[in-house]
Write a structure and sequence with these properties.
Elements lengths: L20 E4 L4 E5 L6 H17 L4 E6 L3 E6 L1 H5 L9 H8 L5 H15 L10 E8 L7 H8 L3 H9 L3 E6 L6 E4 L14 E4 L3 E5 L2 E4 L4 E3 L2 E5 L20 E6 L2 H11 L1
Parallel strand pairs: 5-13
Antiparallel strand pairs: 1-2, 2-4, 3-4, 5-12, 6-7, 6-13, 8-11, 9-10, 9-12
Protein name: Inhibitor of KinA
Keywords: ATP-binding, Hydrolase, Nucleotide-binding
InterPro entries: CT_C_D, Cyclophilin-like_dom_sf, PxpB
């Protein structure tokens, strides 16, 4: 059942990167789009690209934002204008910068294209496996029975299906530390609630459509809540505030109400 286990390690395939598109997003960002739907192979390419880009530590890059099929790169156009070929990419690209032949966007686009070519065969490395204890049902999972009824399953079957999967963290977004997970069983796909809740408790585990996730902070939300974890997914006091990162593998582990209370006391 742990399908993602087979793809915890992988390499970027040959020549696939040249099928991507690069488009401007305003005057200080661009979007690299791999196209298609949510897929492990696409995730590996995006992860490799972000790793490759982060290693370069270029002064004009402000932020790198990965998503399911895209990466948005925010840059400082004024730094690019002032570079005058000081930072070597390729000889021709340096010459174009030096003679003001390229706009900041054109500079970034050419550099992205060079990176996409140079990162072929890059190893994305081993994924970190993160254990998430979950107390399913009851006050912590008020929608568990509704999910079971919609899926035509027993509550126990829903829990077993949910726990016996490896979930790949494709990206973190929506709220600080919120993981977008791939790997949910098709049998557990249920529509979002018609009326979202105004406030959801931190640690709540939900299912919405084809996705499952964990709410790291109190926030409105429309997913069906099936349980709650005592683990803190977002720690603003930490150097790395988000427990989960792109590329991690999440495994949910059922715990009792008593274990939840004990864990919460330890966390406090």
């Amino acid at each position: 059942m742990r399908e993602a286990n087979e793809k915890k390690k992988g390499r970027v395939a040959e020549n696939v990167e040249m099928s991507v598109s690069i488009q401007p997003l305003g005057d200080r960002a661009l979007v690299i789009d791999w196209g298609g739907g949510i897929a492990v192979d696409t995730h590996q390419r995006i992860r490799a690209f972000c790793t490759w880009l982060n290693k370069r530590q270029r002064p004009e890059v402000i932020e790198i934002i990965p998503a399911y099929t895209t990466v948005t790169v925010i840059y400082d156009p004024m730094k690019i204008i002032g570079m005058q070929g000081s930072y070597r990419l390729s000889y021709q690209l340096d010459q174009d910068i030096a003679h003001a032949r390229l706009s900041p966007y054109q500079h970034m686009k050419k550099w992205m294209e060079e990176l996409l070519i140079s990162m072929e065969h890059m190893d994305v490395g081993e994924s970190r496996v993160v254990d998430i204890p979950v107390c399913y049902g009851g006050e912590y999972g008020p929608d568990l029975e509704l999910v079971a009824a919609h899926a035509g399953l027993s509550v126990e079957e829903v829990i077993d299906l949910h726990r016996n999967q490896d979930y790949l963290v494709h990206m973190v977004g929506f709220a600080p530390g919120f993981p977008y997970l791939g790997g949910l069983s098709e049998r557990l796909e249920v529509p979002r609630r018609s009326t979202p809740r105004a406030s959801i408790a931190p640690g709540s585990v939900g299912i919405g459509g084809k996705q499952t996730g964990v709410y790291p902070i109190s926030t409105p939300g429309g997913w069906n809540l099936i349980g709650r974890t005592p683990r803190r997914l977002f720690r603003p006091e930490s150097l790395t505030p988000s427990l989960l990162q792109m590329g991690d593998i999440v495994r949910f582990r059922p715990i009792t109400v008593e274990q939840y209370a004990e864990w919460t006391e330890e966390e406090l």
